[in-house]
Write a structure and sequence with these properties.
Layout lengths: L1 H62 L20
Length: 83
């Protein structure tokens, strides 16, 4: 009977260690995903800012009467900016 109790205790300890490892891994993965989301949001904000700046420059060049040539070859990728 003591052998059976020892086996049960060992299994319980192994299960507790596995649970702690799983919770630690979940926290690490959650932190990594949050950091990646923040980096993506920053990159998207930069892209949207550049798209707005280029759109403003394009509109300004069209409204000027000083003979500036229109902007050509400007590729604005503002798909995530709500345009």
């Amino acid at each position: 009977m003591p052998c059976l109790q020892r086996a049960v205790l060992l299994r319980a300890a192994a299960a507790a260690l596995a649970l702690c490892a799983a919770l630690g891994a979940e926290a690490a993965v959650g932190h990594a995903l949050a950091a990646r989301g923040a980096e993506r949001a920053e990159r998207d904000a930069y892209i949207c800012n550049e798209a707005a700046r280029l759109a403003t420059a394009t509109d300004a060049s069209r409204s000027q009467a000083d003979g500036r040539p229109p902007l050509a070859g400007v590729a604005v990728r503002a798909a995530r900016c709500g345009r």
